[in-house]
Amino acid sequence: MIMYNIACQYCIHLRARIGHLLPEGLEIDRAIGLFHVHGHKDQCFFRYSPSFIPKSGKVAGEILESLWSILNHIAPSTRTATLGHRAEILDDHTSDSNRKKGLGMGK
Ligand SMILES: [Zn+2]
Predict the structure, then answer these.
(1) What is the pLDDT of residue 73?
(2) Which InterPro entries does the record match to this protein (predicted)?
(3) Predicted model pTM
(4) Cβ–Cβ contacts within 10 Å for residue 42, how many?
(5) Ligand 1 centroid distance, CA of 57 (Å)
(6) Which residues, chain by chain, have CB under 5 Å from ion ligand 1?
């Protein structure tokens, strides 16, 4: 699933641009996060709201943006890192964030 603020427009030519890189027969669900989907026309709401996409759950689709302020402190070290090391740093810090959220559930 691709959830993006403008998924309705972004995905129009997606297969033409990167289709040759995707596995054959791959189905891609498109969704617009609940914060942004209400700013689109009604047609987008009913087509791309995660509220109506089976198995997408109740998700705002904005979680990564809410992490930006937390992840800003690692920006200097990722800026000079290699691509692989940058991915590992970001994965480590976002996993840590997810773990802390999991530990805080139910409180
Ligand atoms: Zn739209």
Answers:
(1) 92
(2) KDZ
(3) 0.63
(4) 8
(5) 20
(6) 8, 40, 44
Token pair for residue 88? Answer: 């590992």
Average pLDDT, the chain: 91
Please report which helix (H) or strand (E) contains residue 102, including its range.
helix 83-104
For ligand 1, the distance from its centroid to the CA atom of residue 4, given in whole angstroms, is 10
User: What is each CA distance from 102 to 42, 94, 99, 105, in whole angstroms?
Assistant: 35, 12, 5, 5
Going from the C-alpha of 63 to that of each of 34, 56, 86, 97, the distances in angstroms are 11, 14, 20, 11
Alpha helix positions (H), 3-82: 7-10, 14-18, 34-37, 42-48, 63-71, 75-79
Q: Is 2 helix (H, G, I), strand (E, B) or coil?
A: strand
CA distance 82 to 86: 6
Residue environment code for 6-38, b if the CB has 16+ CB neighbours within 10 A, otherwise e: ebbeebeeeeeeeeeeeeeeeeeebbbbbebbe
Tens of pLDDT, residue by residue over 74-100, are 999 899 999 999 999 999 999 998 899
